[in-house]
Structures are given as C-alpha cells and as structure tokens.
DNA sequence: AAGCTAAGCGTTTTT
DNA sequence: CGCTTAGCTT
C-alpha cells in the first residue's frame, strides 16, 4: 500500500460513507443496521420501523459486508480512489460499482441470506423490499416461513431420514389430521367428540414441539394414566402418518431437525449456504423452531432475531417468550438493541397502549414514544346489542368517507371470527364495500377440499385419508361396507388403501365390486400420468370434470351447487396463477402452497374496501382508522382469563397489538348483550378499556335504559358474502341518481333520494326510506332499482 | 348403498 | 345458530 494513504483516515471515511447512506435512521436503528456480525437481538416495539431496519441491514451486509466493523484496508487504494470516495460522500451518491468495490469487506453472495418469517405475506413483502433495494441480486435470497423453509429442505432429503417417507410426501392440515386420528384411534373414544381436536392433537403437537417422538414421549409421561393413553394414540397416529407418507405441520419442523441430526452433511450444506440468518417475530417461535434456528446458525453465528415480547400472542400454539428472554444466554456474545421510537401512531394511541400493557408482569419492559402529535382522543361507545354496535361502526365509516376518507383506511378488528357476521350485515345494508380476512379460505370449502383430496391421492397414493374422503364422492357405488373391508385388508397386509383397490381383481371379497372399483382406479392412474406432463391447472380441470364431480353438481342444479361450481372455477384459476408465477410448477408444489397459504397471504391492501379481521391476523399491519369491536369481559378478554392468569396476560398483549394497529384514530366499542353461538349473552365492559386513562377517551353511552328497541332487529334478507375474495362488481349498478328519485332497496323497500354526492368513482346517496328512515348508501354497492 | 330426518353439540386465536 | 352424525327407511 502506498505510504501516502492514511489507514485510519480511510477507515473513518468508509464509516462516514456507510453511515451517510443510512442517515435517515435513528441512532438505535443504525446500531442494529451496522451490527453485521455475531448474534443480535432487536427488541422492536410496535411501529418502530422494524422491517425497514431488517431490510437495510441486509442491504448493508450484501453491499459492504463487514466493512463497517472491520479494520481491514485493501492494499491497492490510491489517492485518486480517496478523492473519488470523498466526492461520493459530498454528492451523497452511493450507487457506483466502484464505490462498492473500494469499500466492501467480504460481502457475501446474495443467496447467503435466509430470512424466516411467520406468514407468506411477510416473507413476500420482505423479498419485494429487498428486490427494490438490491435489484437482481436478491433473486436467490430465501425469504420464507419456517414451514416453507422446512418443506424445501425435506423435499430434497427426507429419504435420508430412513423412516420410509419419500419426496412426494403430503402435508396434512388440521382437518386431515383429525380424520386420521379418528380413524386410527377408534377405540380411544371418550364420548367427547371434540376430544381429538381439542385435547389429543394439541397435546401431541406440544410433544412434537419439544422434539419428542412417541417412544420418547411415552418415557417422559411416566405413570400418568391419562397421558399414557395419549402416548398410545401418538404412537398409532405417527405410524399412520408415516404409512400415508404424510407430515402434519409439526412434523415439518420436527423431522427437519431430526434430518439435520441423522444426516449431518445436509445440515452442513445449509450452514455453509446461509452465512446470514434472520428471524422476524421471534417472540412467536417455539422450542423446535429455536432448535432449527440455532442449528442453522451455529457455524457462522450471524443470527439476527427481531421481536417484541409485548406482541407475543401465539402461546396457545406453543410459542415461548423464553426464546426472546433467554437469547443473550443462549447465544454467546449476543448484542441487543431496543427500538422504542414509534413512527406509526399518535401519542394518544401510544399512551393508551402503554397504559394497558404496563399491567402485565412478565415482560422485558419497553416504553414506546413518538414525536408524532397527540391526535384525536379514542372514541369509546357502548351499545345494547351487537347489532347496534355494528350499525354504529357502519355509520361512522360512512361519515369518514363522506368527509373525504377512503373505505380502505378503515379496519374493523375483533377477537373472534364469529363476531364478523353482525358487522357484515350492517355493511351489506349500508352498501359499504368490505373484505373479510378470515381463517376460512377458498381451499377450506367442502368442494375444494374434495378436489384437493383427489389431487393428493394423485400425488401420493399412500394418502389413505384423502382416498377415503373421495372414494365415493361423487357417488359411484363404493359404500361404507366396501371401504371398511378394504381398510381391514390394507391393515392386515400392511399396504395402502389404494393398493388394495388397485388389486381388487385378485381379492375374492371384491369379485362383484370390481365393476365399480376398477373405473375409479383407472381414472386415478390416468390422472397420475397426466400430472407428469400437463400444467397443474389443466390437471385440476380434468380431475374436476372426469371424476364426475362437476356433473354431479350440475345435476343438483341448486343455488348452492352453482356456487360450488363457481368456486371450483376460482380454484382452477388459482392453479393457473400458480402455474404462471412458479419457477417450476408441479402438483406437489401446488399442494404445498395450498397447505401453507393463509387468507391473509392473499390480502391485497390496494382495493378500496373496509378490512375486517381478527386481531391475530392484523399483526404486522397498520390502518389510519381502527375499530376494535366487542371490548367486553367474556369476549375480550375471553372467559378463560379469569381462571388462568397467563391467558389474561396473553389477551392483554393481544389488546396491545390491536391498539397499536391504529395510526390516526382509534374507535373502541362494546355491547352489553350479544348473540353468540345461538344464545344471547350479557357482558360488562372490558377491564382493558378501564386500563386506558380517562383523559385519552371520549366516551359515549348509546345504551337505552328502558325497553330495548332496535330497528336493526329486522332480519336482513341477504345472506352476507362469506368471503370476499371476490369483491362485488363495482360496475354492476352503473346508473345515475338524482335528488327526488324514487328507489327500491331489497331490504329497506321504497325511498326517496335526498342527496347525491360523487365519491371516488362511486356515488354516496342519502335516501329517506318510507319505513326505515334516512340511510346513507353507496350507489354501486346498494343494489338499488330506480322507479 | 343412498337418502332422509331428528337429535345433539360445540363453539378463541392459526402455520 | 349452523353443522355433523346417528339411525332409520327405501
């Protein structure tokens, strides 16, 4: 190196340039971004710009490597180079390749980064933002959920586990698992029908999260009679899964970790491949996920986890907050950074959130602050019934829109999906466009599940659960007696149900039934051949038609059957979308995507509709105006909260998550009576509401103190749209209205138009109905007929 | 095997 | 309330 270059001068210039490129971050954020080596815990409060920090940190690593922390100086730097760098700093131009070459110290190739999140949506968002920032180089970065990452790993090497699984394994969702369990453990019948789904499977799930196989679990259980029964069920269940070449959600993690132990070269491959690992929402990780992460990161030790202990809301599915609390103990030389400045909400909203969460004992302790203004007070309103509550929410949203807002700025959040019904009805009545993000997806519909069962059998003939689901759907003369006989033979010979059916000619018992069975087996074989060559959506279409499923629906020719046919059409479209978006589309990949995609993953914020969802689904999102409905004891927090202090704290964290979704305005509502699961229940105001200081709230009591009379108790005629994946066609009612027009509405009957106001491609009408008073409706959504 | 009716039952949050 | 299932009939 030439004498004239001052080493320390170069290093400090390098720091200045890197810092300047990320100058828009606050000091804490910078600290996280520039900690590019070693284990790092980022405790990021709600709305603290966490995603931006993550993305910037990866960008910094990929562009400059460890340059910020390194004292290494390349030999061949010249005075001219220094001049160039100084000019870059002065011009704030950091885009040049030359700059990068001069400054970078061991930058890793792009595919060195594994980013793990919990939803596909978050993964895609991260990928998109990285692509924006890095261009093509981000192509090979893995930004995936835990489950998809494990699926990829297992797809390559699951046979190395030596348990008989093959690469065409099927992923069982909770419904499949319940069917399998009921089938395998018919003798474990406790009389309680929900025993399997409420007790047995969750208990096994916990065992798998601790990486306990049936044998280990049985040992751990000891002499507990009840748990011994669970262990027995677990053994049979796991064996059935193995024979079906199927994995449940927990297996995906457990078997990956076991694969890493059984085949160290597989683990090594990934350890070398991923120099940098980061995990988002770390507070939601469970024990096996911790094992997975620590194995992957143990060589390079460049692990960055981001989370907020106050937002841990998945304890019920095994998440353990200890992973965050113990991070510094588990990873040597770990650093930790707290992000407490909030960029999202007004100080009123933030103060309310802080006040509520401060009632929790088990937390690391953070206090969010913001330099945003105070903002509006929180509107709190109470009602007689959930119907009045829904009406109020609908009216308030219409007011917001009339004052220049957009529907999409409003979100309605609630504790349980069951609460959405009343609100949907009110929206339908007012003509408010909305979208429900629910646990109920397109693929949860009966007809799609049937179709998927066909596809699963085609992909993996060992899948007995799926086969017995569709063997006689539509009716083809193979009834219960035949199926249970076949099941017995399969169990006796240790083969799959499909094997029995396909060799029915050799089995005496089936001599007469073969006429019915043979065509079905031939059909499956034909589709198996097709699946090797045709695109997935064509296969799906063929299956739907040639199985006779569509014909059976058409024969039924009811409104419901037509809807089912439509849904199948939508499913074919989604397969076509998969075909066009996926790098190498195949049936297996499509089935995997179906199993691992949730409704929120398809949520697209760009349509101008109100969003409705549970608070769980809302985590990670933000909206200018948020309504939290059903703030009642018994609903939020739920009944169990009185009994289990831990659950109360989890509910409180959930309340914290809900409150911090709001950017500008928060509305909270509750009702003293509520129709829930078929009967009316009475509740008091939620304790969480009382925990918000009075000076932050504007309270309105809309409850009557005499007889309850509610106009809304008129039953609506419309069945509300269940999902909303398809929003109502906005162009359908492109008619114009004038003041004085007489109109007909399917629910409100006849009325007269009082005012007309154009609004974002639509028209807001104020209509005086003869029997229902004055309502505000959006013309395109209200299905109005002019006289 | 298939289709019908009556009865019963669970209801939090989800990858 | 809405959905599944048991049990009966054809």
Shape annotation: globular
Number of helices: 31
Secondary-structure-derived class: alpha/beta
Radius of gyration: 29 Å
* pLDDT < 50 runs, ≥5 residues: 706-734
Average pLDDT: 87
Describe the sheet with the most strands: 8 strands, mixed
Strand content: 5-15%
Q: How far is the first residue's CA from the last residue's CA?
A: 89 Å
Number of strands: 21
Task: Kindly state the percentage of residues in helix.
Answer: 40-55%
Tell me what the structure shows.
By secondary structure, this protein is of the alpha/beta class. The protein is globular, with a radius of gyration of 29 Å. Helices cover 45% and strands 15% of the residues. It contains 31 helices and 21 strands. Helix 3 packs across helix 6. It binds a DNA duplex (15 and 10 nucleotides) through helix 7, helix 12, helix 22, helix 29 and helix 30.
């Amino acid at each position: 190196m030439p004498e004239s270059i001052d080493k320390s001068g170069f290093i400090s210039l390098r720091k200045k340039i890197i810092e300047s490129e990320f100058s828009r971050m606050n000091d804490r954020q910078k600290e996280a971004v520039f900690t590019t080596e070693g284990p790092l815990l980022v405790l990021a409060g709600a709305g603290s710009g966490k995603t931006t920090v993550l993305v910037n940190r990866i960008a910094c690593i990929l562009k400059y490597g460890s340059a910020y922390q390194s004292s290494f100086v390349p030999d061949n730097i010249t005075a001219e180079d220094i001049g160039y760098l100084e000019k870059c700093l002065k011009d704030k131009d950091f885009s040049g390749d030359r700059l990068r070459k001069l400054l970078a110290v061991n930058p890793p190739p792009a595919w060195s980064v594994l980013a793990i999140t919990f939803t596909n949506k978050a993964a895609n968002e991260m990928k998109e933002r990285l692509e924006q920032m890095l261009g093509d180089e981000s192509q090979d970065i893995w930004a995936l959920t835990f489950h998809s990452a494990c699926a990829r790993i297992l797809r390559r090497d699951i046979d190395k586990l030596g348990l008989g699984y093959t690469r065409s394994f099927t992923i069982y969702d909770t419904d499949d698992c319940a069917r399998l369990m009921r089938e395998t453990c018919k003798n474990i019948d406790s009389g309680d029908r929900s025993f399997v789904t409420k007790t047995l499977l969750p208990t096994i799930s916990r065992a798998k999260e601790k990486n306990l196989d049936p044998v280990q679990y049985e040992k751990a259980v000891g002499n507990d009679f009840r748990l011994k029964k669970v262990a027995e069920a677990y053994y049979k269940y796991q064996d059935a899964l193995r024979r079906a070449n199927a994995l449940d959600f927990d297996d995906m993690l457990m078997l990956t970790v076991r694969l890493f132990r059984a085949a160290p070269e597989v683990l090594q491959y990934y350890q070398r491949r991923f120099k940098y690992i980061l995990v988002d929402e770390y507070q939601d990780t469970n024990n096996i996920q911790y094992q997975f992460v620590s194995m992957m990161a143990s060589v390079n030790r460049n692990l960055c986890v981001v989370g907020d202990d106050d937002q841990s809301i998945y304890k019920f599915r095994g998440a353990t907050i200890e992973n965050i609390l113990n991070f510094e103990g588990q990873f040597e030389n770990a650093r930790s950074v707290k992000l407490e400045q909030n960029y999202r909400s007004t100080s009123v909203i933030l103060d309310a959130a802080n006040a509520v969460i401060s009632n929790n004992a088990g937390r690391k302790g953070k206090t969010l602050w913001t330099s945003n203004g105070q903002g509006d007070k929180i509107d709190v309103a109470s009602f007689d019934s959930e119907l009045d509550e829904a009406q109020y929410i609908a009216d308030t949203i219409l007011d917001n829109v009339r004052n220049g807002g957009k529907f999409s700025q409003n979100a309605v959040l609630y504790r349980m999906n069951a609460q959405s019904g009343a609100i949907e009805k009110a929206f339908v009545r007012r003509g408010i466009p909305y979208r429900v993000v629910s646990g109920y997806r397109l693929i949860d519909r009966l007809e799609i599940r049937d179709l998927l069962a066909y596809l699963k059998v085609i992909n993996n003939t060992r899948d007995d659960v799926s086969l017995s689901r569709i063997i006689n759907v539509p009716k083809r003369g193979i009834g219960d007696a035949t199926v249970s006989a076949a099941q017995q033979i399969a169990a006796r010979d240790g083969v799959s149900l499909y094997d029995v059916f396909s060799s029915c000619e050799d089995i005496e018992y089936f001599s007469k039934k073969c006429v019915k069975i043979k065509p079905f087996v031939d059909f499956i074989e034909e589709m198996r051949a097709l699946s090797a060559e045709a695109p997935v959506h064509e296969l799906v279409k063929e299956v739907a038609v040639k199985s006779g499923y569509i014909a059976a629906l058409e024969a039924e020719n009811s409104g419901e059957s037509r809807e089912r046919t439509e849904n199948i059409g939508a499913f074919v479209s989604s397969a076509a979308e998969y075909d066009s978006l996926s790098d190498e589309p195949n049936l297996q990949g499509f089935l995997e995507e179906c199993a691992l995609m949730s409704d929120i993953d398809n949520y697209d914020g760009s349509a101008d509709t109100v969003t409705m969802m549970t608070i769980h689904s809302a985590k990670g999102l933000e909206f200018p105006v948020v309504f939290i409905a059903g703030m009642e004891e018994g609903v939020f927090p739920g009944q169990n909260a009185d009994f289990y202090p831990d659950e109360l704290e989890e509910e409180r964290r959930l309340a914290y998550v809900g409150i911090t979704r709001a950017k500008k305005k928060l509305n909270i509502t509750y009702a003293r009576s509520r129709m829930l699961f078929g009967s009316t229940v009475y509740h008091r105001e939620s304790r969480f509401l009382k925990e918000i200081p009075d000076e932050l709230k504007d309270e309105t009591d809309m409850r009557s103190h005499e007889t309850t009379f509610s106009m809304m108790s008129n039953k609506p005629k419309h069945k509300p749209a269940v999902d909303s994946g398809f929003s109502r066609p906005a162009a359908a009612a492109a008619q114009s209205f004038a003041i004085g027009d007489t109109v007909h509405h399917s629910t409100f009957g006849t009325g007269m138009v009082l005012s007309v106001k154009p609004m974002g491609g639509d028209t807001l009408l104020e209509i005086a109905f003869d029997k229902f008073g004055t309502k505000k409706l959006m013309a395109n959504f209200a299905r109005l007929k002019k006289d």
